[in-house]
Design brief:
This protein is mainly alpha-helical and 409 residues long. The chain has a single domain, classed as MFS general substrate transporter like domains (Growth Hormone, Chain: A, Up-down Bundle), CATH 1.20.1250. The chain has 15 helices and no strands. Helix 2 packs antiparallel against helix 3, helix 4 packs antiparallel against helix 7 and helix 9 packs antiparallel against helix 13. The relative contact order is 0.17. About 2% of the residues have low confidence.
């Protein structure tokens, strides 16, 4: 079974657009690894306040809420390849421009937040377009393998990016991280532009004014009301996106202020998270095939919830934290199972809007946590935040228990 699964995954790379999309994803996540860690550590050096990290997170993810009604419709009504090329290219230009400005001028500390907002705007286009694009490239029955393989490649990119970012911060001025990250995004855009791809979902005549686009976006809620199973896995995916996107950032103040970790110890933790993601990406579809997707999703989310809770509220032995954080990385691959089920159950013409809605709702949850941190910083500990994230995953597990045992493909 294991060798058959590996063979199926290798065959996916015979599809030229998928092969280039995977290469692009690796380069983009390599750049993201440099970006997130360098930005978060830079902010941590300026302030030990958890609120400073919360502000950075709100700048990175806030645009997703404001733009999701628009970008979801655009992803369904425009060429998704073009959108991905645009997102990667402009993010590369933004990071390289910031690199040059750092070299030429003494920028104010607040400039990092301006960059975060700009990157948040550009990233909001990428998520819905890329998630919907996979459905165009791969037959429905191979979606789980395709998504977990892409997720494994993403984790490998983040693994190398965050590990190398730690070395850069320790030995090279922080400007170098922005240069490398920007270059990775530009190379990713080149790979995307070479994909042989034609979307069957483009409907140029459907693009209208803002009111028309928003009304089309809200049509997704009608789809969710009609399809109870889709609505449940949609909510699971939305909930799991919260720890998926915030845990790497929360580790910065936790490692620096609670553990007293050095830059290298911090980078080891981030590497183990991504290494766990690789292991989870390989093992999740094997378990899903053997036991079915529902049982795998329930088991992974239950383990993830417990791991997050214990990690943020345990003892102070590094070997203990290393093992737990890798386990968190392994079980975070439950998100890949959820998104594969969403892609299999949703209509192709609605995928961009479904993914944009999921991103929007998860961002609302993230920013709710962020605002609580900012407003109640003196009363909320980092350990409390980990408990909240563990509770969010626990609710995802309860939803997974209620899903009908039926394969999405």
């Amino acid at each position: 079974m294991i060798f058959k699964n590996i063979e199926d995954r290798i065959l996916l790379f015979t599809i030229q657009p998928y092969r280039l999309f995977a290469t692009s994803g690796f380069l983009a996540t390599l750049g993201n690894g440099f970006l997130y860690i360098s930005m978060a550590w830079y902010v941590a050096l300026q302030s030990k306040s958890v609120g400073a990290q919360a502000i950075l997170m709100s700048c990175l993810w806030g645009p997703s809420i404001l733009l999701s009604p628009i970008v979801g419709v655009i992803a369904d009504r425009s060429n998704r390849k073009t959108l991905i090329v645009f997102s990667n290219f402009t993010r590369g230009v933004a990071m390289l421009s910031y690199f040059l400005l750092l070299l030429l001028f003494e920028l104010p500390k607040s400039s990092i937040y301006v960059l975060a907002i700009l990157l948040g705007i550009l990233s909001s286009v990428f998520g819905p377009a890329s998630a919907a694009l996979i459905r165009d490239l791969i037959p429905k029955k191979h979606l789980l393998n395709a998504n977990t393989t892409i997720d494994t490649i993403y984790e490998l990119g983040m693994l190398l990016g965050m590990g190398m970012a730690g070395l850069f911060i320790a030995w090279v001025p922080i400007e170098g991280a922005f240069f490398v990250g920007g270059t990775c995004f530009l190379l990713a855009s080149v790979c995307d532009s070479l994909m042989r791809y034609h979307s069957c979902s483009i409907k140029p005549s459907s693009l209208g004014g803002l009111r028309s686009m928003v009304s089309e976006y809200y049509a997704v809620f009608g789809l969710l009301r009609k399809n109870e199973q889709l609505a449940k896995v949609f909510m699971i995916q939305t909930l799991l996106m919260v720890p998926l996107t915030t845990l790497p950032m929360l580790l910065v103040p936790f490692a620096k202020n609670i553990l007293g970790a050095s830059v290298m110890q911090f980078s080891y933790l981030e590497i183990l998270l991504s290494l766990g993601g690789i292991v989870g990406g390989i093992s999740a579809p094997i378990f899903a095939e053997k036991f079915d997707a529902k049982k795998t999703l329930v088991a992974f989310t239950a383990c993830l919830s417990i791991s997050i809770f214990v990690f943020g509220n345990g003892g102070y032995y590094y070997c203990y934290y290393y093992m737990l954080y890798m386990l968190i990385g392994i079980t975070l691959s439950s998100w890949s199972i959820a998104i594969s089920q969403v892609q299999a159950l949703a209509e192709v013409d609605y995928l961009g809007r479904v993914q944009a809605a999921s991103t929007g709702f998860s961002t609302i949850l993230i920013l709710s946590i962020v605002m609580a941190i900012i407003l109640l910083e003196d009363k909320i500990s980092i350990s409390f935040i980990y408990r909240v994230e563990g509770l969010i995953v626990f609710f995802a597990m309860l939803l997974a228990l209620s899903v009908t045992e039926k394969r999405g493909g």
